[in-house]
Amino acid sequence: MEGMREEEGPDGLEAGRSLPSKRSNSNGHIGIGNTSGPHHQHKALSRHGRTAHSLSAASLRKKSDVTLLTKVPCFGLRNLLINLQEIFFNTKLFFLFPFVVVAFIFFFLHLNQGWIFAASLVGLVPLAERLSFLTEQLALYTGPTIGGLLNATCGNATELIIALFALHNGQIEVVKWSLLGSVLSNLLLVLGTSLFAGGIKHLRRPQIFDKKQSDIGIGLLFVAGFCHLLILVYGYGYASTETNFFPSNQLEMSRLCSIFMLVVYGMHLFFQLKTHSQLFELEEGDDGDDAVDEEEQPVLTWWSAFAWLVFMTVLVAVLSEFIVNTIEEASQYWGLSVSFTCIILLPIVGNAAEHAGAVMFAVKSKLDITLGVALGSATQIAVFVVPLSVIVAWIMGVDMDLDFKLMETGSLLMTILVTALVLQDGTSNYMKGAILLFCYAVIAVCFLAVRSSTLGMIPDGNLRTSLSTSRSISA
C-alpha cells in the first residue's frame, strides 16, 4: 500500500516519529495502527502485559538520542555504545549510578560499615529501575501473558534478593522486618504521599479511581494479614499442644499457610492475565506522556537485554549482600535500632524510583496507575515474596515462620484496615493522604524507640549503643 512501510528495527528508529505501520498482534495477525494516540497506547499495554509497576518505572525514563552513535563505522563498537547509552543514560536516575562504584570502593578500602551500607542502598535505586526496564525489553519479544507474568513477578526482585541473602546469613528478623517495611511503605508512605500530592494539585475537582482493582488488592492483603494473625495467635495459645497431625507446631503451620498464599497469588495472576484482564488494563491519556510510546519498540535485542539483565542482577545481588552484611553495624553507627533501619529506611530508599513514579501519576490524576503501583507492590510482597521466603528458608534448612511478633503484626493489620477504609468509596482527596502519612509517622516513631533507650553519645560525636543493646541486637 502506498505511503505505508515496514517498521524499522531498533537501530533504525527515529526519535519522535509517529507513522502508520504494520503490527503483528499476539495471535499472529497483521493489523495497521498508528504509533501514537491513546487508543494505540491502550492496545500496547494489553499486548505486552505492562503493569502499573512498570508504568511507574517508565515515567522516570527519557529518550536517548543515538543519532551520533549510528554514524560510528564499526558495527560492534556502534552497537556497544548504543547499548551503553540506552542502559545508563535512558533514565532520569543516571546520576545515582556513581554510588554503585562508591559502594565497591568503600568495601575494598574497608571503610566504615555505615558508609558502605548507605552507598549500597542509594546505588540500588537506579539498578532496581534498570531491572524493570530490561524485564520490559524482554517482555516486548513475548506475548501478553508471558510479558505480564514477567512484569508481575519481577516487580520486587530487589526485596527478594535482599531476603535471600539475609536468609543465607540466618538473619531471619532482618528478612521479616524488611518485607514488612516494604508493605507498610507502599500502603502508607507511597499511597499517602500520592493521594496527598494529587489532592493538593486538584483541590477543586475530585479524583476518582476504579474501585474494582483496589478491592481485589485489599482482599489479597487481608488474606496475608489473616495468615499472620492466625500464626501469632497459634503461637501464643496452642504452640505447646501435642498432636500427631501436620502441621503440629507454629513453624509447620507457617509453611502450610505460605503454600496456601502462593496458590492464592497464582490464582490472582491467572485472574489478572487471563480471565479478567480487562479489569487491569491501564490506559494513559494524551497529556504528553511518552513513556508507553517510547517503550513500544524494543531498543535492545533479546540477547542484549538478557545479558544486561544478568549483569544488573549480579550487581543488585552484590549490593544486597553489602547491605545485609553491614545492616547491624550501620544501625549501631547511626544510632538506630535494626528494626527501624529495616522497616523504615530500607524500603524508603530501595523503592524510591517506583515511589516517585506513583506520585507523578497521582498529580496527573491517574490514580488507577498509582493504586496499581502501591497496592500491587504491597500485594506482591505480602502474598508472594513473604511466603516464598518461608518456603526457600525451609529448603535451606532455616526455620523462618510467619510470626512477625505482636507490634509488627498489629502494625500490618491496622495498616491494611486503614488503607481499606480510605479507599472504600472510590474517591480521593488530600485529607485521605494525610491520614495515611500520619499513620506511617506513628509507626516510624514506635520502631525508632525500640531498643534505643540506652543510646548514648561518645565524646567525638558518634552515636553508639550500650553493651546490653548491642547484645540484644546481635541476638
Description of the structure:
With 475 residues, the protein is mainly α. It has helices at 38-48, 52-58, 75-88, 98-108, 113-139, 144-153, 157-168, 172-201, 211-237, 250-275, 291-295, 302-334, 338-350, 352-363, 367-396, 406-422, 430-449, 467-474, and strands at 20-24, 30-34, 207-208, 427-428, 456-457, 463-464. A two-stranded antiparallel sheet has the order 1-2. A hairpin with a 5-residue loop joins strand 1 (20-24) and strand 2. The longest helix has 33 residues, at 302-334. The termini are far apart. 46% of the residues are buried. Residues 1-48, 284-295 and 452-475 have low confidence and may be disordered.
Properties at a glance:
disordered C terminus; 475 residues; single chain; two-stranded antiparallel ribbon; mainly alpha
